[in-house]
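As described in the Methods, two query proteins were run sequentially through the folding procedure within a single session, without resetting any intermediate state between them. The first query and its resulting C-alpha cells are shown here.
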Amino acid sequence: MRWTDGLLELIDQRRLPHEAVYVSCRDAQQTAVAIRDMVVRGAPAIGCAAAFGVALEAANGGSMEKAYEVLAASRPTAVNLFWALNRMRNAIAAGHRADAEAIAIFEEDIAINRAMGGFGASLIADGASVMTHCNAGALATAGHGTALGVIRSARDAGKSVSVIANETRPYLQGARLTAWEMVRENIPVTLITDNMAGHLMQQGKVDLIVVGADRIAANGDTANKIGTYTLAVLAARHKIPFYVAAPVSTFDLAIPDGTHIPIEQRHADEVTGYGDTRWAPHGVMVSNPAFDVTPADLITALITERGIIRTPDEAQIAQLIGH
C-alpha cells in the first residue's frame, strides 16, 4: 500500500499475479469496500488500511463515528482491524493528527514483522523445506510479512530454505500471491493443491509448517485461513513442527478460546467457480467459511515480535502480552 498526499493506494490483490495495478481510496467508505472485496487482505494489512481509511475521513471532515462503523463492518474475523480502529480513535481523542498515527501504525508493522522474522528464523534449519498456507507475506502486511517474513529472515541470515505453498482454496491466495512473492524473492517455491499436503508430509518432504493468523484467543486457539486446522492435525500425525507467526495486535485476550472467534462466511461464488468460469451446477448449496480455528494444543509455538511462546497457553500469553 502507498500513502501519498492524502491518498491511499492499494495494490489490487484480486488481479495478481497477472498484473500489478492499484486501487485508489479517498475516504473511509472506499477503504471499507476495498477491504471487504479483498483488494487488500491479510490481518495486519487490513489494520493498516483501516487506519488510513480513518485518516482519509478525518482529512475530509467527515463523520468519524460513521468511519469507524463502516470500517469495522468490512470483515469480522481479523482482530487487527479493530485494534487499529481503537488506536486511531484514542489518538484522535488525544488530539493527535490522524494521518501521523496511521503512518506510525504502518511503519511499526514493518518493524514488528522484521523482529518477528528474526525470532522465527531461529526455528528454521539450513536446508529446510517449509510449508505455508494462504498468504502471510508482504502483501498481507505493511511489508516483509509474518509467516513469509520468517522465511525471508531465514534466507537473509544465509540459510538455504525452500517453500511449499498450498494453493489455498477457494480464493487461491497461495497460488496467486504467495507463489508470486516467493518467485520475486528468488526463494525456491513449489505450488501444490491443498489436498496434496498430507501426502508430502507422509513422504518426508516437509520439515516444518509456518502460517499466519487473523485472531488468537487468550488460550492460544488461533483463527487462520480455512484449511489451517487440517494442516495442524496432519502435522501432529506426522510429528512436524507447526508454527504460527503473528504480531501482538492479533491476540484478543477478551475472548477465552477459539469458540468465541467470529468466522466470516463469504459468497458462494468463490466455491462454485473462479473468475468467469463456473464448475458447479446451479442450485447446489454451498458453505464458504473463510477461516477455521486451530486449537492451541496443536500449535508447537507462537512467533511474535516479543519472542516465541512454546506450547502456548493462557498464562504464557498473558505474561508475554503484559496483561
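Immediately afterward, the second query was submitted; its sequence and C-alpha cells are:
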Amino acid sequence: MKMSNLKLRLILLLMVSGLVFTSCEDSNSVDILEVPEAISEEETIALVESDDIADEVDNIVDDFLIEDLSLGNKTEASREDGDKHGGMPDCVTKTIVLTNTTKMVTLDFGEGCELPNGHVLAGKIIMSYSFDLEMQIITIAQTFEDFSFNEVKVTGENTFVRMRENENGNPQSTKSINVTLTWPDGEFMSRVGEKTREWIEGYDTRTWGDNVYLITGNWTNTFKDGTIFSATITEPLRREMSCRYIVSGIVEFVKGDATGSLNFGDGTCDNLAIYTNAEGVETEIVLRRRGMKH
C-alpha cells in the first residue's frame, strides 16, 4: 500500500458517500455531527487500537499458559530456548496460588513495564482456572486490577476456552469478551463479543518475535456518547508479534446505516490500511494510537 494525498481522498470520499473521515492533519475538518451515521477516521483508529491491546494481552496469556498445557516435544523445545521468555520481560512479577483443584495466577507489571516491542503495561492481569495436565481444554477467567496498556485503562472480564490442539494441531483460544477501555482524555469504549485465536507459528519456542496468530470473530463496541459499532472479521487477521500492526485480513464495520471494511494489506509490516465504504470508495488510513497526530 503506497501513501497518497490523504486530504484529496477525504474530499472525494465526502462527495461520493457522506462517510466522513476526520483528517488527523486538518483541524478545520467537517463536524461529524453533520452526518450522524458517519464512520470517522478517529473512531476507526480507536477500534484498531482496542484490537491491538486485546491481541498483545492475549499473547501474554498464551505465553504463560503454554507452560501449563503439556505439548510434548514442543515443551522441551521451549525449555531449550535459553533465557527468552516470550512476551513477558523481567519486569513482570508472577504469583501463583494453588489449591487441589484450582490455580490463580497474577501477572504484576508494577507502575510500568516495557514489553520487547515497546508497549508499556502497568497494573495486574489475574487468571483463575482449574488445573489438570491431562485436560485437552481449559477454561480461564481473566480480570484486571489497576491495569493499563500504553496509558489506556482496561477493566472488565474475559473468559477463555483454551484447547491444546485444534484440528490443525495448533493451540487455540476462544475468548468471550466483556471489557471497557478508557483513554487518558476520558473517552471510553465498551466491548462485548467473541474472538478465536489460532496460534499458527512460534508456540514451540520461547521467542516473542516468531509468534504468529490467525484471528476470527465478531463483537460490538459502544462509545461514551452511545455510538454503537459492530465488527466482523471476514478474512482472518494475521498478527505477527514481530510487527506492531496487523499485517493482513479484513474487518467489516457497521454503524447504523453506514458500513465499511478495513483491509490490513498483503502481509507487509506497515502502519497502513485501506478503508472501503459501501460505495466502493477507498481511503488510506495511517494506523496510530488514538489522539496522536502524525
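Residues 6-286 form one domain. We note this only descriptively and draw no conclusion about the first query from it.
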